[in-house]
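Researcher: Hi, I'm a grad student and pretty new to this. My advisor asked me to get structures for two proteins we've been looking at. I'm not sure of the right format, so I'll just paste the first sequence and hope you can take it from there.
Model: That works fine. Here's the first sequence with its structure tokens right after it:
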Amino acid sequence: MKTNKLALVTGGSRGLGRSMANKLADKGINVIITYHTNKTEADKVVAEVQAKGVDVLALQLDVSKADTFKQFGADLRTAIADKFGSDKLDFLINNAGIGLMTPVGATELSVFESLSDIHFKAPVFLTQEVLPIMNDGGGIINISSGLARFTAPGYAVYGSLKAAIEQYTRYQASELGARKIRVNCVAPGAIETDFGGGAVRDNADFNKMIADGTPLGRVGLPDDIGDVVAFLCTDESRWINGQRIEVSGGTNL
């Protein structure tokens, strides 16, 4: 059943974001996705979501460029008014990300800055831009990683930034509680997507190694994450706040 709720999913044209958009639509929640450059893929997601009977829109956004967020915020307000007949948003899912390996002792400054801009600066400042148009009683979901809890060679900077966003999530939950805005963090394990060059999906040996280290005996699929994010945008999750929810099948217990 369609609701009057509206969610914004960054990085919604592929992988986890695509699943999130579809799973939100299954809950009757209207959706705005952002995409970086691939409008063709974004349009495919729009068609998928629209077929579920909700309203949907795709907007271009480069989350690595925080100086564009003010203009994006203005465009978002216009789009919400024109497409959805509203001036408010209910849910923000900070999902957009990249996977770059950065060995300890051999991290280039440009790589560090790219990872920092996308995985920490963007959730902080995009949320700050969107908060004035969020309904009280809404929710924010930040996407972290299992790599904030355990380690894997090459992911020191990435995992550390994800740990930072987990702590920031707790601060957000504490300070936004007065507005009844719940803030939680979802931490995926290894998922079969094109993230990080598609290694988990396309490298059979790597896939098997991760599956063998997971009690449930497989790697994750996008819908494993999309379902949890959609649940956190429903009233059934109303008493979950300030939490890190790892969705990894129990990897590296």
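Researcher: Oh nice, that was easy. Here's the second one.
Model: And its structure:
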Amino acid sequence: MKPVAGLHHVTAIAGPAQDNLDFYAGILGMSLVKKSVNQDDPGTYHLFYADAEGHPGTDLTFFPWDQAAPSVPGHGLASEVALAVPPDTLKWWAERLNRYGTPLGAIETRFGEKALPLTDPHGLKVALVESAAPRGRAFTPSASSPVAAEHQVRGLHGARIRERGLSPTAAFLTEVMGFRAEHQQEMRSRVEASGHHPTPVIDRFWFKSVYFTEPGGVLFELATEGPGFSVDEHPAHLGESLVLPPWLEPERRRIEAVLPPLSPPRPAPVVRR
């Protein structure tokens, strides 16, 4: 069986889109590689942040729902997303994030790697983790990022999930998913055979997805690596305009009328008195 290649992307819910853009592109310096909409709720943005070319495994995405109530920590939820940064850069990152008033925890060691916990503007727990390599994935630095290439976020490092009990999820990941796993149709069949209920394969245009909940209740997504973000935009101009999948293109005028305007990232350092 073809193995899973690792994390493809992580998706979270955010508050106002401009705040989200200011933080992830303006402060963390990630590239906005796709500005689209939630395909199930086209009046909401779907913003994709990654490296300059949008390689799978570097991609953190958000649905900005202004009116969503703050999340409540609990079991069956993802509790933190970790982003890889180069070795010996956490002190630099702590100084940068402090200048912008980002809530920070103390640098800690996790499985032999240093990590800096922080909270984004809408309450998402994030950790920057010093990692020698972006977990075997390609990485292309961005020349337009406000963060110099030697400090840039390299991609996804991992995600933490909170479970009531460890054993069912651990067994599912190792015995059902293999956790090296990903040939999508075969993997979907294995998930279904284990008594879970995956969705059909859903065409997201830039990749294809299958969704299901693991035993602890966390929503998982199996996503293919291709065709990728450059299928409908030139690689040098990713994220510069609103891109819609072909089946939503006829509704462009209506969709654009309800989306809030987005300006280039404009984070302001905190003035301390």
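Researcher: Is there anything I should tell my advisor about the second?
Model: You could mention this: The mean pLDDT is 85.
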